[in-house]
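re the bet — no i am not wrong, look at it urself. input seq straight from the record:
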Amino acid sequence: MRIHFKTSYDHDIRLFPDLWSFCVYAALIVIAVLLPFLMGEFYLGEVTNVLIWAIAGLGLMLLTGQTGQASLGHAAFLAVGCYSCIILMEQGWPFLLAFPACGIITGVFGMLFAIPAVRLHGIYLAIATIALSILADDIIVLLEPWTGGVAGKYPSSIDIFGYEINRWVNIRDFYWLVLAVTILCTLAYRNLLRAPLGRAFAAVRDSEVSATAMGVHIAFTKALAFGLSCAITGLAGALMGFYAGAVTNETFSIVISINLLMMIVIGGLGSIHGAFFGAIVVAFLPQALSILKNAVGGGGVAIPGLESGVFGLILILFIMFEPMGIYGRWLKIRTWFELFPFARKDMFRRQKSYLKTERLR
């Protein structure tokens, strides 16, 4: 069992708790870099899809898991990031400028939406974001001169200092690009949690009354959380566009928003690991169902709604038996082995994290 003795505030906010954790994550990065040499193009494409979903999950996790603001409209911000990046590149912007710019544009849109939305709580905020996700489809069609309407847009190849990256020509190069963005977004998220702003996000999530008493500006903090969350989500949307090769008004539907929310719930709310665990489930579930259908001899039979039904069943089971998600279960298993034979079941009993004045908000 590893025990961390924290003798200063710096020890509490350091990036890695100890040398062992640093070595584990370093080994994971090395494996990720070597992965293109260890598997075929098909499975490498699936891993790339997992990383893109993980970036989108990090964006929503920052808002829902870290700040406690439910959102079912992040598909709209995926669309903003995707279309803005494509349009900027069509205007002659290089990818290295258009890509971060699309994140900034999406973040500004998120903050503008948050100005009226931050006054809402719980289910009312979720309904407002659902409305945004539904409206996004019609807005894309209405802005046909920019978005291409129902005909859609076809992203061009990525050019970085004369080196061309195309997902359909060389998935390996595109994978490394997505991996680099994933690492940068993860480090940015982790450092944000260590900063005073990250502590303010957690305070707003746990109790707005207590956060106000500690001097946290609730409306500004929520709006900033929306903006940062949407900025990360916009980057994921741009990568989704390059990965798909074509985007239309139906690409970023409300189903994507629902899948994103279910993804972070299944993975584990409030943790970086939860975004990656949930992304693995979302990205590999269709392939797993396809393999299972072929195994039982029904590969040629289409079952409408099978994927959504299985996904919903998994979500229900996690809510009933493991509300902390996959990462929460992993923490319990690890703690049990570290404390064996002194671990007790009651040590994992959930505690109320709200005030009586806020439980109905």
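see?? The first strand starts at residue 158 and ends at 160. told u. also The mean pLDDT is 85. so pay up
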